[in-house]
Amino acid sequence: MRDQYYEQLDSIVDDLVTLTGTVRKAVAAATAALLNADGPLAESVIAGDREVEETVEAIEERTLLLLATQQPVASDLRQLVATLRMLTDLQRMGALSVHVAKVARLRIPDVAVPTAMQPTIMAMASTADQMIHAASRIVAERDVDAATRLEDTDDEMDRLRKQLFRTLLGGNWEHGIEPAIDLALLGRYYERLGDHAVSMARRVVYLVTGEMQSS
Amino acid sequence: MRDQYYEQLDSIVDDLVTLTGTVRKAVAAATAALLNADGPLAESVIAGDREVEETVEAIEERTLLLLATQQPVASDLRQLVATLRMLTDLQRMGALSVHVAKVARLRIPDVAVPTAMQPTIMAMASTADQMIHAASRIVAERDVDAATRLEDTDDEMDRLRKQLFRTLLGGNWEHGIEPAIDLALLGRYYERLGDHAVSMARRVVYLVTGEMQSS
Predict the structure, then answer these.
(1) Alpha-carbon gap, residue B95 to A33, rounded angstroms
(2) How far is CA A151 from CA A127, A146, B167, in A?
(3) Which residues, at least 6 apart from A97, have a Cβ–Cβ distance to it below 8 Å?
(4) Does A1 reach chain B within 8 Å, measured CB to CB?
(5) pLDDT tens across A58-82, in order?
(6) Which pLDDT belongs to residue A207?
(7) What is the complex's ipTM, to 2 decimals?
(8) Are B74 and A68 contacting, i.e. CB atoms less than 8 angstroms apart?
(9) Does any CB of chain A come closer than 8 Å to the CB of residue B84?
(10) How far is B32 from chain A (nearest CA, A)?
(11) Domain spans in chain A, listed from the N-terminal domain onward
């Protein structure tokens, strides 16, 4: 009976890691759609979010069932509760990839991001990608040290966001209002993607150490 | 023993309702700071978020303790899990009120919002306020009909956001890049505040009907 329980718990964590990989791919696809004005790819990200939503709901159902039927205590309870919180993060990360894809779609056949700003957006996307990848490994391996390193990567994201806003507001902006607004919102979306990766990592640290870090 | 359990459960719901009121006040104060360029008020919202964070953590602790010690099943379990999810919403709503206050602070002594745009921001803030107030009553009274009406109010928020972006991008914008970006982000913050109120209401509907509405 308990063996079966731990099998189910492991399978939930496996599915959480797989879902993190799915979300990571969605973010990468949304960024590619954005930088290449690729309409079909943007549509596939937007349509694909239903699968993320359904997977979130399916894992949530199984987690609740385990909570209800096995009535776990202590660290097992914490694991299941952390799973529910991480599912909220993943759901939001899926929605954020859709937001990026929708900015891409809105400007097609143009590329929403002016050429000069593409390196900044690429750097933000790449930082978000690293952070989501790290979160996935942290969940899979309960790696507290990697969670600390993730906070450093988040500082890099912060630096990139500030750089983006300095460029937008520096007085030499010549691309008009529309790309400026697109970029401000895109900057926010990538920043939030990173925040959710940090939030997932903090849940794991809490599981391992029993101490919650403030946000 | 069970009586004490239900007392604790009721007290958690009461505290959730109170916290929703606190967050609602923070949003109203942030909007007032924004529209009046009121520095001390903006600072008080930013500093006050620590109290929201601490209250969230305290309620979360008590919810987990109840989960661990009482091992509730069925609807009691769902109530506690819904509480954890609503705490995530409230935590984010607190953070969003801080974001609004920080836009205010950044532009002081100027008012971040150009005079012509103030009615739109007031309407968005007022809609968010109504939605948070409705969410609070829905949580307190498990009012499923009010949750349906809340979705209509969310449509109004959507309409206001579209109106805001039409003005920003309509070609007659004469206030420059900085206010345009501020307004795009502010629009997003108020919209997200409304989204979280809807999310809270949906959790209550799920508790009452057992059916989760898709987002």
Answers:
(1) 30
(2) 12, 9, 38
(3) A23, A26, A27, A29, A30, A45, A49, A193
(4) no
(5) 999 999 888 888 878 778 888 999 9
(6) 86
(7) 0.90
(8) yes
(9) yes
(10) 24
(11) 2-209
Asked whether residue A176 carries a pLDDT value surpassing 70, the answer given is yes
Alpha carbon of A59: minimum distance to chain B alpha carbons (Å) = 14
Using CB atoms, pick whichever of A53, A168, A178 lies closest to residue B214.
Answer: A53
- Contact list, A168 vs chain B (CB under 8 Å): 177, 181
CATH 1.20.58.220 fits B2-209, yes or no: yes
Cβ atoms of residues A177 and A183 within 8 Å: no
Least confident of A112-121, A205-214, B50-59: A205-214
- Residues recorded for chain A: 215
Contacts of A65 in chain B (CB under 8 A): none
Using omega within 30 degrees of 0 as the cis cutoff, is the peptide bond preceding A109 cis? Answer: yes
Report d(CA B66, CA A155) in Å as an integer.
37
Contact A215/B at CB under 8 A: yes
Question: Which residues have CB under 8 Å from B138's CB, separation 6+?
Answer: B144, B146, B147, B150, B200, B201, B204
Chain B stretch 136-165, residues whose beta carbon is closer than 8 A to a beta carbon of chain A: 165
- Specify the DSSP element, H or E, that contains B125: helix B118-141
Residues of A in contact with B188 (CB under 8 A): 185, 188
